[in-house]
Amino acid sequence: MRSSLRLAVFCTALALALTSICSAQGPLTPPGTPAPIMKSLDEIYTAAEASGPIGIPINQETVPGGAVATFLITEPGSYYLTENLTGEENKDGISVTADDVTIDLHGFTLTGVPNSKIAINAASSSNFRVSNGTVRTWPEGGVVGYIHTRIDGLLVYDCGGAGISTSGSAIMRNCRVVSSASTAYYAGDLAYLENCTAASGDGAGFAFGGGCVIRNCTAINNGGVGFAQGSGGGSILENCVSNLNNPDGFSLCAGNIVRNCVAYKNTTGIYLRCGKNMVTENLIRNNDTGITASTNGSEVVYGNTLVGNTTAFSGTTGNYFGPAQLPTTATSPTANFVIP
C-alpha cells in the first residue's frame, strides 16, 4: 500500500515538472523573415573589383626601363599592366631579372615595332608567371622564361623567334600561338601543357623534352613537326590533334605514351624514332604514312584506327604492331583497324 502511494506521488511530481518545462518555452514562430548574416558572392566580387588590381602597376615611376627594356623588373612581387605597351627599337618590352615575379597583363596588348626585341624576357628568372593578355609582332620572340615558369591565357602572334620559350618545369595553359617565325612553344623537360594551340607557324608547333605531359593541345598547319620531342622520353601525349604539319604530326624519341590523339594530313602521322614507345587508341587519317617506327625499337602499337593513309605502317620489324584488320572482321583484341 505504502509503495503504491509513493509511486503515485512520484508520477504526479514528474508530470507537473514536465508541464512546467514545456510551458516555460517562448513562441516558436519567428518575428519576421530571417535576414542574411553573410555577404553574397556578388557583393564580394563587387568589393574586390572596386578595390582595384592587387600589386604594383607597371609604369616608368615604379619599374623604369633603360637601355635593354622599356620596363625593367628587378624585385620579386606581383605586377600588372595598366595600358597597352608599344615596343622600342633595340629593346625588350618588359625585362625581368628577379625570381618570384608575377605579371598580369589585364587584357592589354604588347605590340612590337621593327628592330624591337622580345616582348617579355624573363630568361634568367625562376618562378615567373605571366597571364591574361596579347603579344604581337616582336621580332625576336614573344615570351621567354627560365625554369618553373607558368603562362596562362596568352595570345601570341606574328612574332619572330619562338612564340613562348621556357627552359623546363613549365606550366602552360590556355594559350594560342599563331604565325610564329620559329617554334611556337619550346617547353624543355618536365613541362605540363594543356589547352594550347600552335597554328600557321614556320617551325614546329610544340618542341619538348622528357617527362612532359601534354593534354588537349592542337598543332595545325605548321611548317615543322606538330609535336616534336628532341631527346629524352617518358612523356605522355593525350587528346591532342596534329593536322597539316610538315613533315610529321608527332615525332617522338623513347619511352613515351601517345593515346587518344588525331594525326591528319601530315607527311607521317606518328614517327617513332628511338624505341619503346606505346601508341594506342589514336585516329591516324589521310597521311602519306600512318605510323613509322625505327627498326628493332620494341615499339608497341595497337588499338589504333588508320584511315585513308597511302601507307599504313612502315618499320614493323623488331616492333610489336597489333595485326592490321578491318573493324567488321577483327578478331584480335590488339588489332589496329586499317581502312583504305
Strand content: 35-45%
Q: Could you give the count of β-strands?
A: 36
Question: pLDDT below 50 for ≥5 consecutive residues: which ranges?
Answer: none
What's the total helix number?
A: 2
- Distance linking N and C termini: 106 Å
> If you average the pLDDT, what whole number results?
91
Query: What's the main sheet like?
Result: 24 strands, parallel
**Gyration radius over CA:** 31 Å
- Gross morphology is globular
List the helices and strands and how they pair.
Layout (H helix, E strand, L loop, with lengths): L1 H22 L17 H11 L4 E2 L11 E5 L3 E4 L4 E2 L5 E5 L4 E4 L4 E3 L6 E4 L6 E9 L4 E4 L5 E8 L6 E2 L5 E3 L2 E3 L6 E2 L5 E3 L2 E3 L6 E3 L4 E3 L2 E3 L6 E3 L6 E3 L2 E3 L4 E7 L2 E3 L2 E3 L3 E8 L2 E3 L2 E3 L3 E5 L6 E3 L2 E3 L3 E4 L5 E2 L2 E2 L10 E4 L1
Parallel strand pairs: 1-3, 2-5, 3-6, 4-7, 5-8, 6-9, 7-9, 8-10, 9-11, 10-12, 11-13, 11-14, 12-15, 13-16, 14-17, 15-18, 16-19, 17-20, 18-21, 19-22, 20-23, 21-24, 22-25, 23-26, 24-27, 25-28, 26-29, 27-30, 28-31, 29-32, 30-33, 31-34, 32-36, 35-36
Précis, in short:
The chain is mainly beta and 340 residues long.
List keywords for this structure.
mainly beta, 10% helix, 340 residues, 24-stranded parallel beta sheet, twelve-stranded parallel beta sheet
Structure, described:
- This protein has helices at 2-23, 41-51; strands at 56-57, 69-73, 77-80, 85-86, 92-96, 101-104, 109-111, 118-121, 128-136, 141-144, 150-157, 164-165, 171-173, 176-178, 185-186, 192-194, 197-199, 206-208, 213-215, 218-220, 227-229, 236-238, 241-243, 248-254, 257-259, 262-264, 268-275, 278-280, 283-285, 289-293, 300-302, 305-307, 311-314, 320-321, 324-325, 336-339.
- It has a 24-stranded parallel sheet that branches. The chain has a 12-stranded parallel sheet with strand order 2-5-8-10-12-15-18-21-24-27-30-33, with no helix packed on it.
- The longest helix is centred in the N-terminal third of the chain and has 22 residues, at 2-23.
- The model has no long low-confidence stretch (mean pLDDT 91).
- 41% of the residues are buried.
- The protein is built from 2 helices and 36 strands.
- The protein has 340 residues and is mainly β.
